[in-house]
Amino acid sequence: MLILFCRVLFSIAGLLLFFLFDQLSANECLKLSVLLAAFLLGVGGVLHAWRRSPSAISVLVRVVVPVFYLDAAIKGFLRGYFGMRPNPNAVLQAMFATDQAETGEFLLHNSVALAQAAGCFVLVTAAVLLADRQLQRWHAARAVAAPGLPQKCLAASMAVFLVLLHVNTTMRRENPALFWPLRYQQYSAQLQAMQSMQHALTAAMSAPRDWDVRYAGEDARTVILVIGESTNRASMSLYGYPRATTPQLDAMRSKLLVFNDVISPAASTVESMMTMLTPADIGNPDAWMAKPNLLMLAEAAGYKTFWVSNQTRNDGWIGLLAGEADESDFINYGTGRGENNFDGNLFQPFAHALRDEAPKKLIVVHLLGAHPSYDMRYPSRFAHFDRAHDAVSAQMEHQGRSSWIRNQRDEYDNAIRYGDYVLGTLIGMTEKAKTDRAASLLFVSDHGQEVGYSRNHAGHSASDKSGYEIPMLIWDNQQAPQSAAVRAALENRPYQTDKLDATVLGLLKIETRYYAAQDDILSSAFLPVQRFMNGLRYQRAAPLAR
User: Fold this and answer.
1) Nearest-CA neighbor of 502 among 229, 340, 323, 293?
2) pTM reported for the whole predicted model
3) Who has greater pLDDT, 200 or 427?
């Protein structure tokens, strides 16, 4: 039993190394250590006390310990990428609502971080198993007495303790053998609940009287909502970035309302859009289950709805929402680097929606934007910033950013420049479509990205402001003239896009019980509220100089 205790101590030392390498939090390390100790002393103790099988114990150690270490390495990688442990909905949606092409791009984009996590796993596992082998050899060379009653009692007690640990829900969920299956079960239950609630809301469309929907606009109106992907305003020259990443938007600046202080409700797509397009918000995230979304309200007001997307159709809740549109067109079939993934291929289905003769139209355009991997988001002719030597690269080098991160910023800025071309073209197409009808276009990103702004990281991040600070702009062909002071005051309004549905309803000229004027950034009744980032109060950093 002494040798078994030593093996347990060595195994826990490995978990402590993951903690020291910042792969595990103190809470996770403690829980995993308790589970691992209970497992080895319980199961291993029973094998030793009753079967006296050192070889069985060795097999147990060589199988169980690497499983715990692999779990620690995966959690460490996901925490570094998402800025949170892999429990919340954002991580579950990103992990399970994906396809083969996106997974391949994710692995390629994060190859360095994955290699670091794998290296940590291999080194720690090898060191602990090597130490365990030395203990085993030392034990084999000694004459060992048969286990007595105290050893058997201890082994039985630890076995019972192991079982009791799994009665506790929190500890059971931390067991590496159960953690991931339970998380997938949780995701599947969420998706099933989404489907059930969506069907219930769809059924309610036949009698939406209690929605109290009224249209108060012109006879003909087109509203276009362009949802960007992973676009951070800090990399847009429209917001003062030194690189010319948005030349088309810069040229039409006088035609745009460009909002300077907008953040997303979350650092991931699904979690953000579940509040952006429904009455749900940060304070009441489940309201979408019982209240109509934007598409439903628009259709109840007589709008024909379109959903044009470069995201994949099988995209969990977003796919269910898109299915509510009168017409939906998904151009992305998951071919990775295939040219059909470029957002410019949305121009044709978008033009089709613009030509439609319906008097009132809501067109949602969902871009792939600057989603990692960044180099897959633009044609080669838009590689303007590859290996650039300019103020941005000099600043990043001064900040100690690695060459890989600097390269990621170059590719990200290329993707932003291509996104400028796409958005500028969409606005131009709308402007030329029909001059006899009112038309508005609102562009907003679902969330941002951390690409070396704050640290050596490229990707989604719930722990950095860059994961939330997004662009938002509005083009309107009937925009009334405004003084510079009024325009500046409007553009500087602080906003979080969990209230975006109110602004879109305002553009749609829809009056309903679900419209709150104080949440409409364009309304004279707008009232700013406290904003939150990853559960903490958001404090805006100093804005970029224009």
Assistant:
1) 293
2) 0.73
3) 427
